[in-house]
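User: Before I run my own analysis I want an independent prediction to cross-check against. Here's the chain; please return only the structure tokens and, at the end, one sentence I can use as a sanity check.
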Amino acid sequence: MNVLNYVAQRVVTLIPTLIGLVILTFFLSRVVPADPAALIAGEGASRQQIEALRQRYGFDQPLLTQLGIYLAQLATGNLGTSIYTGRPVLTDLRERFPATLELTLVSIALATLLGIPLGMFAALKHNSWLDHSLRACTTAGLAITGFWLAIMLQLFFSMELDLFPLGGRIGVPEPRALTGFFLLDALLSLNGTAFLSALKHITLPALTLAYPAFATIARFTRSGVLDVMQRDFILYEKAMGLPHLLITFKYLLRNALTSTVAQIGLLFGSLLAGAVVTEQVYDWPGLGLYAVESIMKFDYQATLGITLWAGVAYGAVNLMVELAQAIIDPRVVRR
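Assistant: Structure tokens:
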């Protein structure tokens, strides 16, 4: 089986997963004990006004009919119109997605750049003070909840030291929109003021997301390196007298990082699809904050759109991870 066939099989299996996700979310959103038409109309609306809204949005139709209408809309690329913003859901998602993607990229890059080297060194210095310190640090990273860490960072770095802002994405006029990423747009437009402001605003949210991700990456790297160090081919390379750096980077890491790459992809997908708490605490204008607002306002169209968008993003990231694994270890394709 070649790589293209391998990827094609994964794409085919992703489609029914997304359809099931949409159907499940659709029915769950309809069992909420609240009348969406009454919520839209407001407290002072008459019964006739509520009934008119119910007919306008199709809430008077049977559930299966509503589902069929929604799936037909999806087939044409229409995610519906947000009840509260009055705009197409796809437009809202496109505007919010760059903020979430930028935060996720910075967080996962920080976690990876720290997690892989420290995990490798901890394994190479097994049972040393570095190894014990890293294990304690990663255990704390996996145990601490995100919202508590976010609040503590705000209290210390924002309230006590006044080094970083409490929330938001930028404190000055936005840089010229080129990519949607404020850091990159500021660099491309040579806007140093906007870059520094965007960097200060993204630091605390990125640290909040990066810490548990770093803990996972470091632990998987350490475990993978320790496992591969005991393999016969590593012992053979050492017996052959090959340089230590060559053994480490050419033979050891390549075989040890297969599971770590898979975890990085899963972490990236989960952060991209579910950074809800962090965005809420830091008032970060991304998909997470949009999801909370939509759920609190019973905005069904927006909630379904966010769910589908998150499912596609998570599936796409997993597909890229499996492709990366196939490149690193061709045996994955033949399994």
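Sanity check: The chain is about 75% helix and 0% strand.
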